[in-house]
Amino acid sequence: MEEDQDYGMIIDAGSSKSRLNIFKWPRDDPTSLSEVNVMESVVDLVGQTPEFNPSVLEHSSCELANMCHCKDVHSKAGIQFQVKDNRIEIKPGLSSFVAVSESCGWESLGGPMLLDLLKASEKYIPEAQRSTTKLYVMATAGLRDAQKKKGKAAVQELLGKIRESIGRSSFSLSAIDVISGTEEGLYSLIQTNKALAVLDARALVGTLEVGGKSMQVAVQPKPEEHLEGLMRFSFHGISHDVKIVEMEGCGGEAILEKSLLKVKTDYDNVHPCFNTGWTQASLADSKDSGQTLNHGDGIRGEYDQAKCEGLVQWLIENSGCGWNGGLPKLLGKIRVQQGPTFNLITMGMMKPKDELQVSLQEVNARAESFCRLPWYEKPA
Description:
Blueprint lengths: L4 E9 L4 E9 L7 E2 L18 H15 L2 H4 L5 E5 L2 E5 L18 H12 L12 E6 L1 H10 L1 H15 L5 E7 L2 H15 L10 E5 L3 E6 L11 E5 L2 E11 L3 H15 L3 E2 L8 H6 L14 E2 L3 H14 L15 E5 H8 L13 H12 L9
Parallel strand pairs: 1-6, 6-7, 8-14, 12-13
Antiparallel strand pairs: 1-2, 2-3, 2-5, 4-5, 8-9, 9-11, 10-11
Helix pairs in contact: 3-5, 4-5
């Protein structure tokens, strides 16, 4: 019965997008939590919030950009909604709205954007239970970076406007905050092990989560490693000590931007890791992305395995991400989260159930085959 269920929602406000996760659990057993299955048709419900219509922003973005000198923000103005991996997503990320000139009107859009996510959730949460549904907004690396560049006051102003907007919804906000990289890594570890049903096992599956701006590694080292700075949490009476490391500037988008700048200076604007035929215009026209890449103008793709490996090696050595430092001896396995795994699935190179069966050698072979395809022949 629906009335015997409790509901909770988390908005993961990342650097490039905000994702809404909806959960439910039996009222008498909170540990039996499960994700609500979200259907793609829910996207039809968003964009209906009276305060915010993405088409209005899209059509006015050029005028506003010229008036407010905020073209870097408005280049991301193609507000997008989609359902991906059982989550409702909206782009761009909240960090796009921090400390923008008031005449641009951008600083007031963060709240209405999230209201559209909540509007979509109403399809899955009974009206009588919305006021008691726990709602958490957790901002990650994008706003952590904004706090450093724009100041905490600017970020808190944005969060305050979001509180006001959510206060006008049928849901009650439990908490909104910018979480640390350590907290982000811990939540990723718990979520992964909960999904794999091994959270009550002695040996956890570690996570390497690649976000937009940062990367988090969360692992359970063997006791003989004697590492400092371990975090301890308990589940069903079993305690786990885990090591969590945040690598700022090492997210997928951050590394991509570094590669584009390197290509412009040392590769004559020819990116050896992109499919042959790729251009900024072809990306904007594709179904995969309505956005453009920062620093992508003038670059074209021409895949060359040897040159690509050289570029990747340069990124590893010069990214400052500590990738050459290695990991401690692990008690369990490690799982790559977000971009890398999902991209392999999205590009048709791996099926969701393949993840534990496909070897790294097979992944490399499939990636090589995919990268050799001309851009216009790649899978849709």
